[in-house]
Amino acid sequence: MAVNPLVHVLEAVRAAGHEVGPGLSANERHRIESALGLTVPPDFAELLELGVPSGGRFPDWHGGPDAIRPLVARPVEGLLFDVGHGLWLEAWGARPASEHDALSSAKEALAAAPPLVPVWAHRYLPTEPSKRGNPVLSVMQSDIVVYGADLADYFAREFGLARRSEASGTTRPASLPFWGQFLTDEGPP
Q: Fewest CB atoms within 10 Å of the CB: 12, 118, 149, 168?
């Protein structure tokens, strides 16, 4: 019987000196999801049920929605910062003349963007499509790169595990609603 690759992820996190706390129950996770208006992708939900990496730059999933909310907001805040410095998407129409109006319009448009779920520091997992195998993104304002083909590949890169041969690397995903338009071809070594 094959060992779940997510078990290896948690072992690598421990080996890197981080703690892995008890997993979240499905009810705890659903409470967070409901409060934040998002759905954690199935592979990350499974990881969080197996164990919750904690400490350092890991999100405090046991802290509930109030601990995760600011981290979910951070990618949108980063884009709004860039809007204040000239970023504007063609899909938003003509840019308003005043910075205040531009930020208001962008904020309204960004409310429809699918949320990103924090994994570690500024590494995020898209919630859409809601499926296994979404790439992990490194998100710094509008500078967004694929940092792992999926969760296992990402943790292998971040914490020095041997990568699976079937991982496709950090190539651009076929379809990544909203956030995919920012992806650059640069990624981790």
A: 168
CB 53 within 8 A of CB 61: no
Determine if the peptide bond prior to 129 is cis (ω within 30°). yes
Q: How far is the first Cα of the chain from the last one, in angstroms, to the nearest whole number?
A: 32
- Classify burial at 113, counting beta carbons within 10 Å of its beta carbon; exposed 0-12, middle 13-18, buried 19 or more: middle
Percent of the chain as helix, strand, coil, to the nearest 5: 45, 15, 45
State the alpha helices, DSSP H only, in 16-139: 26-36, 42-50, 65-83, 99-110
Calpha distance 80→88 (Å, rounded):
10
| H or E element that contains 147 | strand 143-148
Q: Where are the domains of the chain?
A: 5-182
pLDDT band at 116; cut points 50, 70, 90: very high
User: Taking the CA of residue 78 as centre, how many other CA atoms within 13 Å lie in the half-sphere pointing to its CB?
Assistant: 17
Give dist(CA 116, CA 74) in Å, integer. 9
165, 152 contact by CB (below 8 A):
no
Q: What is the pLDDT of residue 167?
A: 47
